[in-house]
Automatic annotation (TrEMBL):
Organism, as annotated: Streptomyces thermolineatus
Record-linked NCBIfam families: panB, PRK00311.1
InterPro entries cross-referenced by the UniProt entry: Pantoate_hydroxy_MeTrfase, Pyrv/PenolPyrv_kinase-like_dom, Pyrv_kinase-like_dom_sf
Protein name as catalogued: 3-methyl-2-oxobutanoate hydroxymethyltransferase
Assembly, per entry: Homodecamer; pentamer of dimers.
Family to which the UniProt record says this protein belongs: Belongs to the PanB family.
Source lineage: Bacteria, Bacillati, Actinomycetota, Actinomycetes, Kitasatosporales
Length: 266
């Protein structure tokens, strides 16, 4: 077995093959997805919300992302591991972006990094790719900008916003990104971006025409609890399974059914 590479990803678009991406934040979950054949795993800064208990992605640090990414790399054999650069670790410009991305790939073995922003991040994407680091871009709704957006509104609605999204998509492609996430974008616009670009689009809340799809694993598997966004399809009820297991264990301990003879040493 060898790892999936950015060349495999490029070839998939040539063949018109759709592929799935999932987030992962720890070694065991990542190994399950690796075994399931998920070709690309994203150590998203959604780890802030979905793994570390923060309300937004803004507080998660590079130290935390490095630790989680290293775990996901250790847990996988075949998946290409993409690591998010968190808020505040690249916004100062290309030099800061290169310093953060270099640390990420050196200390974790990640195959690529991801950062948010189209035209505004193009210079950073260019320096990283010229320096030999594979970059996945992320445009449309960029959650690190939650303060400036005042929430998580659908992006690219209206002629002007759609034209800007197209410019952002071309800018990250021209800068050398190997793929681009389109988050919360009208399906028709995502389809147009997908047609126009030669690099793959990875949709989340961006309709069916994208070259690939990504979901946050805790949403997809029913671990999140509470409301999940409308674009999520829930494939399992992992939170219920875990909670039921915990309750059954507690009942056994309280009632004396566990440990039984076969669990004991003499
Ligand atoms: O952090 C994340 O999980 C992401 C995906 C939703 C694309 O950036
Ligand atoms: Na992210």
């Amino acid at each position: 077995t060898r790892r999936v590479t950015v060349r495999d990803i490029a070839a998939a678009k040539q063949r018109g093959e759709a592929w799935p991406m999932l987030t992962a934040y720890d070694a065991l979950t990542a190994s399950a997805f690796d075994e399931a054949g998920i070709p690309v795993l994203l150590v998203g800064d959604s780890a802030a919300n979905c793994h570390l208990g923060y309300d937004t992605t803004v507080p998660v640090t590079l130290d935390e992302m490095v630790m989680l990414t290293a775990a996901v790399v250790r847990g996988t054999k075949r998946s290409l591991v993409v690591a998010d650069l968190p808020f505040g670790t690249y916004q100062e410009g290309p030099v800061q972006a290169l310093r953060s991305a270099t640390r990420m790939v050196k200390e974790t073995g990640a195959g690529a990094v991801k950062l948010e922003g189209g035209e505004r991040s193009a210079d950073s994407i260019r320096l990283l790719t010229e320096s030999g680091i594979a970059v996945m871009a992320h445009i449309g709704l960029t959650p690190q900008s939650v303060g400036a957006f005042g929430g998580y509104p659908v992006q690219g609605r209206g002629e002007e916003a759609a034209a800007q999204l197209l410019r952002d998509a071309k800018a990250v492609q021209d800068a050398g990104a190997f793929a681009v996430v389109l988050e919360l974008v009208p399906a028709e616009l995502a389809a147009e971006v997908t047609r126009v670009l030669h690099i793959p689009t990875v949709g989340i809340g961006a309709g069916a025409a994208c070259d690939a799809q990504v979901l946050v694993w805790t949403d997809m598997a029913g671990m999140t609890g509470g409301r999940v966004p409308r674009f999520v399809k829930q494939y399992a009820d992992v939170r219920r399974v875990l909670s039921d297991a915990a309750k059954a264990y507690a009942e056994d301990v309280v009632g004396g059914a566990y440990p039984a003879e076969e669990h004991s040493f003499h």
